[in-house]
Amino acid sequence: MPVEEVFVALGGNIGDSQTIVTQAMDALGNISQTSLRASSSLYRSEAVGDIPQDDYTNAVALLGSSLEPTALLLELQAIEHAYYRRREQEERWAPRTLDLDIILFGDRSFNDSHLIIPHPEFAQRLFVLEPMFEIGGDRFVPGYGSLRYLIDNAPAISLEKLS
């Protein structure tokens, strides 16, 4: 399989989330048949949803990978598990140590019971769009438009780029 550009969003808000996201970013570069091409700055964002919780630390990685999407998903879930991510009892948008989401996988569309690409909510998430723009520029996402357009039209949230 050819190497494809893959954007992966990272986030967490339990424990030392800045350290966890930074370490997870490094771990992405150790996935078989995958290289870490670029990593965004860290961002602090307010939590989404109705559950009162701490702010999140977010970032986006640009990978080059020759894995199939489901194989890469399994690798990401193994990294999440290493940081004690638990999914079985989690509510949607509950606090978490680490969340790794495939946002874009080349120009592919993919939809099965475990994975949807492009990520179904990325266009509404400024904490994904801004770091994607930082490392990927103003690219066009088929079916969505340019990243700049998406950023300009995403719901406003508190988002701060960390040094």
List its salient traits:
six-stranded antiparallel β-sheet; alpha+beta; globular; single chain; Alpha-Beta Plaits; 27% helix; 163 residues
Q: How many beta-strand runs?
A: 10
* Major sheet size, sense and barrel closure: 6 strands, antiparallel
Written as H for each helix and E for each strand, in order along the chain, the element string is: EHEEEHEEEHEEHE
Give the name of the CATH superfamily: 7,8-Dihydro-6-hydroxymethylpterin-pyrophosphokinase HPPK
Strand-residue proportion: 25-35%
CATH class: Alpha Beta
Describe the structure.
α3 (126-136) packs antiparallel against α4 (147-153). By secondary structure, this protein is of the alpha+beta class. The protein is built from four helices and ten strands. β6 (110-111) and β7 form a beta hairpin. The radius of gyration is 15 Å and the shape is globular. The strands form three sheets. Strands 1, 2, 3, 4, 5 and 10 form a six-stranded antiparallel sheet that branches. A two-stranded antiparallel sheet has the order 6-7. 27% of the residues lie in helices and 28% in strands. The chain has a single domain (4-161), classed as Alpha-Beta Plaits (2-Layer Sandwich), CATH 3.30.70.
